[in-house]
Backbone:
């Protein structure tokens, strides 16, 4: 009599991955049109060209935080329901009002819901920084983007014109144009600094997430992204004006559209490095000398011995 052939089954090491994989495939299928629309926006809008890197860094952040998880504590949780309901509500509102931004935003609570459904609170504590970082891949609504671009243009125009005047050049702000002695330098919407602002806020958030700093320092790093981005844009426009006045219009145009554009992120990272160095110096508690620690421990032992003898 022959024994029945055992039915094939997954190895034990792969079984815990079946449910997360199935939920991930379902999420990808449900949001495929949304992801395709986001990819199209990243490809055709330079302001959000960093969107491709956001999911990559989110995965890297999960890997960097792997030491804070214990898979044995993962338990499916009904706490995923509020997240999934929020995602469904956002999608319905976006479809009803033809507002694509709500549909794109619904991806965030959907991902959070999958994480909680798989591992409960343990998975949420591990994954929430990476999930929150995904917000940087979603473009701002058109009206909000336009509302931010206009005052940024005006700010850059006024500040750069005043700097050029202080340096002795002829520069008059007229609307969003800096009137130089031989050319009009237009601060168009693409040069308002909004693109730099969006990119560098994402970069600063990434640095704050991975840096081994206190909560206060991380908040300062994130808050400083705005003035650093604006400063870099002002430097770019001012340098272009100086080149127009001192070198040639061709060199200035090349620097404005190519050279200085590529140099802005490294320059901003340099300012961020200086900030990190200063924060490390100013807000890190100084370590006590080892001799002082030894003297303090010796004093504590002596007092403890005296108390013991007194008893």
Residues:
């Amino acid at each position: 009599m022959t024994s029945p052939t055992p039915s094939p089954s997954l190895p034990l090491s792969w079984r815990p991955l079946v449910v997360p994989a199935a939920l991930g495939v379902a999420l990808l299928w449900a949001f495929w049109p949304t992801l395709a629309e986001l990819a199209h926006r990243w490809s055709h809008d330079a302001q959000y060209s960093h969107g491709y890197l956001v999911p990559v860094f989110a995965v890297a952040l999960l890997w960097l935080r792997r030491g804070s998880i214990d898979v044995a504590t993962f338990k499916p949780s009904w706490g995923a329901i509020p997240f999934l309901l929020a995602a469904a509500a956002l999608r319905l509102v976006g479809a009803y009002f033809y507002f694509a931004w709500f549909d794109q935003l619904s991806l965030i609570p959907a991902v959070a819901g999958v994480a909680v459904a798989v591992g409960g609170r343990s998975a949420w504590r591990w994954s929430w920084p990476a999930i929150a970082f995904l917000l940087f891949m979603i473009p701002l609504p058109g009206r909000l983007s336009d509302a931010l671009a206009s005052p940024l243009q005006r700010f850059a125009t006024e500040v750069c014109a005043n700097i050029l005047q202080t340096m002795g050049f002829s520069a008059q702000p007229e609307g969003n144009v800096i009137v130089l002695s031989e050319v009009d330098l237009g601060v168009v919407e693409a040069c308002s600094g909004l693109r730099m602002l969006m990119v560098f806020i994402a970069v600063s958030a990434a640095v704050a997430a991975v840096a081994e700093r206190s909560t206060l320092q991380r908040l300062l790093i994130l808050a400083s992204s705005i003035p650093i981005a604006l400063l870099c844009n002002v430097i770019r426009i001012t340098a272009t004006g100086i080149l127009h006045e001192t070198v040639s219009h061709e060199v200035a145009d090349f620097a404005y559209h190519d050279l200085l554009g590529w140099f802005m992120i490294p320059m901003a990272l340099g300012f961020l490095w200086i900030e990190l160095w200063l924060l490390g110096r100013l807000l890190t508690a100084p370590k006590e000398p080892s001799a002082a620690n030894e003297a303090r421990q010796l004093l504590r032992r002596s007092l403890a011995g005296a108390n013991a003898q007194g008893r």
The mean pLDDT is 80.
